[in-house]
Amino acid sequence: xxxxxxxxxxxxxxxxxxxxxxxxxxxxxxxxxxxxxxxxxxxxxxxxxxxxxxxxxxxxxxxxxxxxxxxxxxxxxxxxxxxxxxxxxxxxxxxxxxxxxxxxxxxxxxxxxxxxxxxxxxxxxxxxxxxxxxxxxxxxxxxxxxxxxxxxxxxxxxxxxxxxxxxxxxxxxxxxxxxxxxxxxxxxxxxxxxxxxxxxxxxxxxxxxxxxxxxxxxxxxxxxxxxxxxxxxxxxxxxxxxxxxxxxxxxxxxxxxxxxxxxxxxxxxxxxxxxxxxxxxxxxxxxxxxxxxxxxxxxxxxxxxxxxxxxxxxxxxxxxxxxxxxxxxxxxxxxxxxxxxxxxxxxxxxxxxxxxxxxxxxxxxxxxxxxxxxxxxxxxxxxxxxxxxxxxxxxxxxxxxxxxxxxxxxxxxxxxxxxxxxxxxx
Length: 426
Ligand SMILES: Cc1ncc(COP(=O)(O)O)c(C=O)c1O
What we know:
This protein has 15 helices and 17 strands. The protein has 426 residues and is an alpha/beta fold. The strands form 5 sheets. A 7-stranded mixed β-sheet has the order 4-10-9-8-7-5-6, sandwiched between helices. Strands 13-14-17-16 form a 4-stranded antiparallel β-sheet, with helices on one face.
């Protein structure tokens, strides 16, 4: 734990850094057409990036180019357009593997997003490996996408769920009893970064402890992919899930990294075209992984655009993005802490690029509604973490979440609007 004076020193240093030396130049905003608009008569300040990011022109162009020039179905064609579509789709798989340092493209399964990726693991690996009396270990800070699929699996199989506790408002995982919590566990599924608290979990260390006990490991990287470098081999996880739309890509495309050895023994997720090698009236032989898990016509344009998004993000630089986002969140947190009657959730030091809070006298929904009238977009609610909010004793929080195109001036504007609203309502 840090002392108060250490925290004050950090706050001061952070405020100076973010005001004087942004990690990413403001000109990057010119690549995002949606940012250059007015909302309700004010310049848009988009601080809802944990829900979804805005899209750069390179991604919009990739979608248009695909549909204007290359559109065809993949894999089964012998004509030029089908070959181009296949090259775009499979090229994206290679690019994703490189982005997260997977051993090969065969480790990458395309899905609709993080939610589908996690459901796929629960429905396939879970169905084959989890039985009555088994335990699945999660944390109290999981998004519903990393909770409900395991609840469904537990109900189907008679397995039980166990949770690593969250310490309280500072939003850390209490790992003091991790060894005991891992006892008899079949699978651990954990978020890398909390979308409600901004906590960055040490998933590498937690996965290492789990794997040393033979526990399978799943990482929900919805909030970390595109925000910090990811290396699945260094993390040592068996599965890792993320969504394209949170890292400058389009909606409807996501990724599941699944270690190849595990894919071999997993039953298919859905049946249909593309996932088979031979079919007769009563049975089928399945295609090799990862195609075995991709039934039907895939989101080819989405994969091509995800490829463009990953290229774009790598050009900006993941280390620079991590520093920039965290700097803005800290800059916001320091200013928020000046408000009377505010409760800020998540760690003081080492948070990622978001900050959640409640104000004693102002309902979060009223604040968000009035902020929107001033062109400031933030999110209010339980952020799909209802059990965590119940534990914290608040039905909802207000959340400002940042990405590399946000600026310290936008944080200032957000704070100015909050001051106005608290004066009006407080
Ligand atoms: C931590 C976390 N996990 C999972 C999800 C679900 O992502 P998607 O809706 O893109 O499937 C989200 C979305 O906000 C999230 O923040």
